[in-house]
Design brief:
By secondary structure, the chain is of the alpha/beta class. It has helices at 3-15, 18-25, 29-43, 59-83, 101-115, 128-137, 189-198, 215-219, 230-239, 265-296; strands at residues 48-51, 54-57, 90-96, 119-125, 142-145, 154-168, 184-185, 208-209, 225-229, 243-244, 251-260. The chain has two domains: 3-80, Orthogonal Bundle (Arc Repressor Mutant, subunit A), CATH 1.10.10.10; 90-310, 3-Layer(aba) Sandwich (D-Maltodextrin-Binding Protein, domain 2), CATH 3.40.190. α5 packs antiparallel against α10 (265-296) and α9 crosses α10 (265-296).
Amino acid sequence: MDITLIKSFLEVAASGSFVASADRLYVTQSAVSLRIKRLEDELGKPLFTRNRAGAELTDAGREFEKYALSLLRVWEEAKQQVAIPPGYTQSITIGAQYSLWPRLGFRWIDSLQTELPTLNVRAELGMADRLTRFLIEGIMQVGLMYMPQLRPGLSATEILEEELVMVATFEGAELETIFDDYVFIDWGAEFVAAHALALPELTNPGLTFSLEAMVADYILNRHAAAYLPARFVKKFLDSGQMHLVPDAPRFPYPVWAVWRDDMDPEVRQVATQTLAKICAGAEADGEAVIEELEEISEDEVEILGEHIADPLPGD
């Protein structure tokens, strides 16, 4: 069995689209179609019903999906087990979005290695889509992300209540006069909707990024302002490289750990315990930033999207 065919099948099953799957797999749509056709020929059954809306699993496709996930998991486990270096007995691959590595992911790895000296650790970086695909394929066992996308065999746990706050790289920034310096960061549909309602004058500043906290590197070298995670920017606030914008609303942005349900129970237990300790410290950093924001603001700091219902994981 060609494992590439399995990965393509699972991607189409998850996205419901040959076009979207081609983009995520970095191949052409015709290549994805050919792979699915080969798989259908080998199984002797059609796996998808194609229509204008995309691709929907047939009964045979839904039945095969369970086996495809198992096949991929066994393959990835075998690859990882073979790759474990001498002196190590277990392995884990952790993935996280960019802003979740500093003060969270890196410290988690330190704690894991202290608790399990023979644990081989591999780290991955990516946006939620990429991390979810790695989890489905068994490349990763756990991922830290803001907007989890649940799939069969995965479970999500909220681990940290992140806060997005507006910061500027210059002193004296004011919410009413910051338009020319404001950089809009697309933190997802909920943030965009809440931002449009609360700060309509800043909704279209002429420059938009979908790079999340990576934009910090951009604004640090410019006269600029943007929304960034409180925990992430604390070090820049402490060093004087960034400054909080008084009276700017904050936006709750929970962090989730997404686990493979079939990961090693011992490693899962230690990973859960160490992550909880690291999150407690990270939460304290965020709370300190919010307290500072409240102290410098004339009025009570509003919450973006306070009247918008919280989304469920996977929505």
